[in-house]
Write a structure and sequence with these properties.
Elements lengths: L1 E4 L7 E3 L4 H13 L2 E6 L5 H12 L3 E4 L3 E6 L8 E3 L4 H11 L5 E5 L10 H6 L6 E5 L2 E7 L7 E4 L5 H13 L5 E5 L4 H14 L2 E5 L3 E5 L7 E5 L4 H14 L2 E4 L12 H7 L3 E5 L2 E5 L16 E3 L7 H10 L2 E6 L11 H11 L3 E5 L2 E6 L6 E4 L4 H10 L7 E4 L11 H7 L4 E3 L1
Parallel strand pairs: 2-15, 3-14, 6-7, 10-11, 18-19, 22-23
Antiparallel strand pairs: 1-23, 1-24, 3-5, 4-5, 7-9, 8-9, 11-13, 12-13, 15-17, 16-17, 19-21, 20-21
């Protein structure tokens, strides 16, 4: 698919997409919860659909409609010998420890960029938990055979917090309380806060000691019926908020200001760039510095930002920085190597086509903004966030920007181009 985004002025309201981080965790908790769960405001991105498929493969009975998903489960009881997590990094890392609660031999599959992403932590940790594992030298496919027996372990948290999320959920489900998980150099702490929030919402009692160790405590009997509402997605909404800052103003609805999601920190970056921000009862209004519709290239200001704990913000931050006058510095480049693409290099390559110079200096990215965004053809690199970043930057380009393999957005924000159109952008799809 090719999406062509034209320079546009945006206005109006838009509801943020459902958070796939919240949605996938809710699916996992619903599988582990013995009883009935109703998930409200469910997502329908490819990663969300993959999570629904996985919990069905692992024994849950699922009924899906547009407003809610009903999950009936009696714990992890695999229906076959294989599960496929699609292209979801969270899915593969979270559901593999959960699948290992069963004594059945299971082959874990993925597709697309996921087959190139390292999974060596399974090989390192699983044998100490009584899990047999056979991986493709640290890559997919992976064969496991449980059952998982919780033990005191130490996990390296520097690469990803997603594996820790799976371990926390699996340990909680065993209801064994005399063990702890120690973590060294944990990144993305807000994502672990989200995991603990979901576990607590379902009734499990898991706490951390300065994110260095996690312990499991007795809890009241779990309720047979749980109702859980998926949050609005700050990761996807970050692109809308940046679009409003450079081409708005627009109002974004459906976001929780007290969310545990790491990517709500986009608001501090927008503030640093001197975008206009107005918090209202029903949403957040974000616009250019002067709120004027006469010149969408408003004099936003270069900023500095540490994205180490929220690396998914790099693409929308680069789109924002491209319009800001001066050199923006973003820290945390080391977190980008093992995403859907090597995002540091991908952002540098694709934004160069748009006339934006990006330097990668160790763990810091420097974006030279305010020099004008060129009309060009860019390649999503099959990375959903790269496609969206280029689409947002195109709103302030000197001419149309053509995005090839634009369907990459379906992984997380399937309505992205439609939402831009509803806000007044001209977007052609072919």
């Amino acid at each position: 698919m090719i999406a062509t985004v034209y320079p546009s002025i945006l206005k109006g309201d838009q509801v943020a997409p459902a958070s796939k981080s919240s949605m996938q965790r809710a699916c996992a908790a619903a599988l582990l919860h013995k009883g009935e769960t109703v998930i409200l405001n469910p997502g329908h991105s490819h990663d969300d659909l993959a999570a629904i498929d996985v919990i069905q493969k692992l024994g849950a009975v699922v009924e899906v409609n547009e407003a809610a998903i009903k999950v009936v489960s009696n714990g992890v009881k695999p229906m076959g010998s294989e599960m496929n997590c699609g292209e979801s990094g969270l899915g593969i890392r979270m559901f593999t420890p959960i699948a290992a609660l069963s004594e059945q031999s299971i082959t874990i599959q993925g597709k697309g960029s996921l087959v190139k992403r390292p999974m060596h932590f399974f090989d390192e940790i699983f044998p100490s938990l009584g899990i047999q594992i056979n991986s493709n030298q640290g890559f997919l496919p992976i064969q496991i055979k449980g059952a998982l027996h919780p033990a005191n372990i130490t996990v390296d948290g520097s690469l990803s917090s997603q594996f820790l999320t799976g371990l926390l959920m699996a340990y909680a489900a065993t209801e064994k309380y005399d063990v702890e998980i120690k973590v060294v150099d944990l990144k993305s702490k807000p994502y672990i806060d989200l995991t603990l929030s979901v576990l607590n919402a379902f009734g499990w009692n898991v706490k951390h000691n300065n994110y260095e160790s996690f312990q499991f405590f007795e809890h009241a009997p779990l309720k047979p019926f749980i109702k859980y509402t998926v949050e609005g997605d700050w990761s996807g909404a970050a692109f809308l908020l940046v679009a409003g800052a450079i081409a708005g103003p627009i109002k974004v609805k459906g976001l929780q200001l007290d969310s545990s999601q790491a990517d709500k920190r986009i608001m501090s970056a927008l503030e640093s760039a001197q975008a206009s921000i107005n918090f209202q009862e029903d949403g957040i209004v974000v616009g250019p510095h002067s709120n004027s519709h006469n010149d969408k290239m408003q004099p936003l200001t270069a900023f500095t930002f540490d994205a180490t704990d929220c690396p998914d913000l790099f693409p929308p931050l680069v789109a924002l920085a491209a319009v800001c006058n001066g050199v923006t510095e973003i820290k945390g480049v080391s977190r980008l190597a093992h995403k859907e693409s090597d995002r540091g290099l991908t952002l540098q390559t694709e934004f160069a086509k748009l006339g934006i110079k990006i330097n990668l200096e160790g763990d810091t990215m420097k974006i030279h903004g305010g020099t004008g965004i060129h009309s060009a053809t860019v390649f999503s690199q099959q990375d959903h966030r790269i496609a969206m970043a280029c689409g947002v930057a195109a709103l302030c380009a000197q001419g149309p920007v053509e995005i090839t393999e634009a369907e990459a957005i379906n992984k997380s924000y399937i309505d992205f181009y439609t939402h831009l159109q509803q806000l007044g952008a001209k977007v052609d799809i072919q």
